């Protein structure tokens, strides 16, 4: 069944002078990239001086695209930039990178440690696009079976309309292609903040809250925003 039915270069100029300044949190409710000085100090201490630089490039990417989305520019520009940004993070499996079999990292952890796997890329893309202003009903983090690899895999699916052939953001390929062209992927289940879908399109409202690693991820995000 197709996804429609079921379902390392320098990062954007890393090292540019404008990225060397640490961000200052804005008053009020902090957004995804409203980094506090405490968080940036933690990132610097844990992963080194280049880590805050990577964080600031991500911040600039999100904020620039958020402004563009607010002005009515099409979603596709943000999709391409966010997809390319996270795909340049070096791949490491969880056991080698985090010392556990399965770990879902926050974007701060992915960029700070400068490594991740398919789940971390998909999560980073999803959270970034949501922050940019793309409605979450257009986005689904999707577990698939990568048939050529013979293993489980995760991608992000973007639905321009509810019944559209979704576009697939994937670290296995640099380009964004419709699901109908990704015959190498077989969907298993997908979710966003609100819902969980199983193969065949059946949804369960609030089902994403039953995904333990997703709950753990949200707790880590909240902790980062409290720093």
What descriptors fit this protein?
seven-stranded antiparallel sheet, single chain, 8 helices, alpha+beta, 227 residues, disordered N terminus, C8orf32 fold
Q: If you had to describe this structure to a student in words, what would you say it looks like?
A:
The protein is built from eight helices and seven strands; from the N terminus they run αααααααβββββββα. By secondary structure, the protein is of the alpha+beta class. Helix 2 packs across helix 3, helix 3 runs antiparallel to helix 4 (75-87) and helix 4 runs antiparallel to helix 7. It starts with a helix and ends with a helix.
Strand content: 15-25%
Task: Please report the number of helical segments.
Answer: 8
Helix content: 25-40%
Q: Please, what is the oligomeric state?
A: single chain
**What is the total tally of β strands?**
7
Distance between the termini: 44 Å
CATH architecture: Roll
- The number of domains: 1
- Specify the overall morphology: globular
| Low-confidence region ranges | 1-29
Mean pLDDT: 86
Q: State the strand order across the main sheet.
A: 4-3-2-1-5-6-7
Which class best fits the helix and strand makeup? alpha+beta
Order of helices and strands: HHHHHHHEEEEEEEH
Biggest β-sheet strands, sense, barrel: 7 strands, antiparallel
Q: What Rg, in angstroms, do the CA atoms define? A: 17 Å
Write down the CATH topology: C8orf32 fold
> What is the level 1 CATH name?
Alpha Beta
């Amino acid at each position: 069944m197709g996804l429609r039915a079921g379902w390392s270069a320098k990062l954007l100029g890393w090292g540019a002078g404008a990225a060397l300044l640490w961000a200052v949190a804005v008053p009020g409710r902090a957004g995804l990239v409203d980094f506090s000085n405490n968080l940036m100090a933690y990132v610097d201490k844990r992963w080194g001086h280049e880590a805050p630089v990577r964080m600031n490039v991500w911040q600039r990417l999100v904020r620039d695209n958020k402004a563009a989305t607010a002005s009515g520019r099409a979603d596709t520009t943000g999709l391409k930039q966010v997809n390319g940004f996270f795909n340049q993070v070096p791949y490491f499996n969880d056991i080698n990178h985090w010392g556990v079999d399965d770990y879902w990292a926050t974007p701060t952890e992915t960029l700070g440690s400068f490594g991740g796997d398919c789940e971390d890329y998909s999560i980073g893309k999803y959270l970034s696009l949501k922050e940019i202003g793309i409605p979450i009903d257009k986005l689904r983090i999707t577990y698939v079976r990568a048939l050529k690899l013979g293993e489980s895999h995760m991608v992000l699916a973007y639905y321009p309309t509810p019944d559209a052939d979704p576009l697939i953001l994937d670290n296995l390929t640099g380009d964004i292609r419709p699901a109908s062209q990704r015959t190498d992927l077989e969907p298993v289940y997908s979710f966003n903040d609100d819902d969980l879908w199983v193969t065949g399109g059946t949804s369960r409202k609030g089902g994403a809250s039953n995904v333990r690693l997703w709950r753990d991820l949200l707790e880590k995000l909240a902790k980062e925003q409290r720093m």
